[in-house]
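Whiteboard transcription, Tuesday session. T.W. wrote the structure tokens on the left side:
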């Protein structure tokens, strides 16, 4: 049999355990905080895009599923939709009529990842121009405008000036000058 003291200790431990579970162990409602949409270079590039393309609307971090949709029916369509689900593009550039002009990507790495390559393939299949700029050296506003609206050399003759071949991937490559400042070399 339990003595009175043992019973008090037993119930004290049980009550203490329940109290600790109530305070720390029960499900708490989820908490949220604000998150920056763009950070650092991405934000600088966004404002540079806006200045370079004043006649366009720029949407950062746009879901790929908002820009393209799979064709076909049944399970093939569902599988294709699952492949683009969750993918985003860096910046979607629309004209004032809300027609997609180009998708602009800011490359942070040396070469695109498999995911980026797959995304470019999906966009090319839908006939959407993809333009890439290096993050380490942002292009000028003039170069951005010229790259997006330029007529590539491989474009067909039937394209009007300023348009691009369907699904063409254009990459901006900064020009390296052979000249350098050598005024203070011999000090």
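and on the right, the sequence the group agreed on:
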């Amino acid at each position: 049999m339990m003595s009175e003291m043992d019973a008090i200790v037993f119930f004290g431990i049980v009550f203490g355990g329940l109290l600790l579970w109530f305070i720390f162990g029960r499900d708490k409602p989820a908490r949220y905080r604000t998150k920056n949409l763009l950070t650092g270079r991405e934000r600088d590039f966004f404002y540079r895009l806006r200045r370079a393309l004043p006649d366009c609307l720029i949407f950062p971090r746009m879901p790929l599923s908002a820009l393209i949709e799979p064709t076909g029916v049944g399970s093939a369509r569902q599988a294709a939709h699952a492949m683009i689900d969750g993918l985003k593009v860096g910046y979607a550039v629309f004209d004032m009529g809300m027609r997609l002009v180009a998708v602009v990507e800011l490359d942070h790495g040396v070469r695109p990842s498999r995911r980026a390559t797959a995304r470019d393939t999906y966009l090319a299949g839908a006939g959407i121009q993809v333009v890439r700029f290096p993050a380490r050296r942002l292009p000028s506003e003039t170069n951005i405008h010229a790259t997006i609206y330029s007529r590539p050399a491989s474009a067909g003759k039937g394209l009007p000036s300023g348009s691009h071949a369907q699904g063409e991937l254009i990459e901006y490559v900064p020009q390296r000058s052979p000249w350098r400042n050598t005024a203070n070399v011999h000090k």
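Someone added at the bottom: The mean pLDDT is 79.
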